[in-house]
Amino acid sequence: MALEPRERDLPRIRRALTFYKVSSIITGVLLLGLCAEMIIKYGFNVVLEVGGASGGFGLVHEDAVTGFNLFTALLVAHGWFYVVYLFADFHLWSLMRWPFQRFLLIALGGIIPLLSFFLEARIGREVSDYLAKRQAASHTLEDSH
């Protein structure tokens, strides 16, 4: 038997959904950037640096980096945002009282390219529909009394 979210958690679910959607998009964009970075780095043996010998942005061989390595910064940023994404996933998952497998599926969105965008749309639609259904049911109960 599936558990239903608690009535008192419904307002918190809306905020948790917004937080999840924002973190999902940011994590997805950073993951796509990371994929592009890996293709450039391992395909062409270059990295993107700022403030090196060229003074601005430049692609240089990975052994010749003298400035700030933007690829490393992208890697670190994705790592931290993935932690935020996992927190948003956990928060929404716990409020919705979904099975643990659902948490794991959503967590994969931050490590499989493009999946976070599909999950964000699907989860967002599903949770919004659920909240609308609950709100309509509560109005129907109020009208009958």
TrEMBL record:
Subcellular location: Cell membrane
Top-level taxon of origin: Bacteria
Signal peptide: none
Transmembrane segments: 20-44, 64-88, 100-119
GO cellular component: plasma membrane
Protein name, per record: DUF3817 domain-containing protein
Protein's UniProt keywords contain Cell cycle: no
Protein keywords: Cell membrane, Membrane, Transmembrane, Transmembrane helix
Domain DUF3817: start-end pairs: 17-123
Keyword Plastid attached: no
Organism: Mycetocola reblochoni
Its membrane topology: Multi-pass membrane protein
InterPro entries, per database record: DUF3817_TM (IPR023845)
PANTHER family: MEMBRANE PROTEIN (PTHR40077:SF2), MEMBRANE PROTEIN-RELATED (PTHR40077)
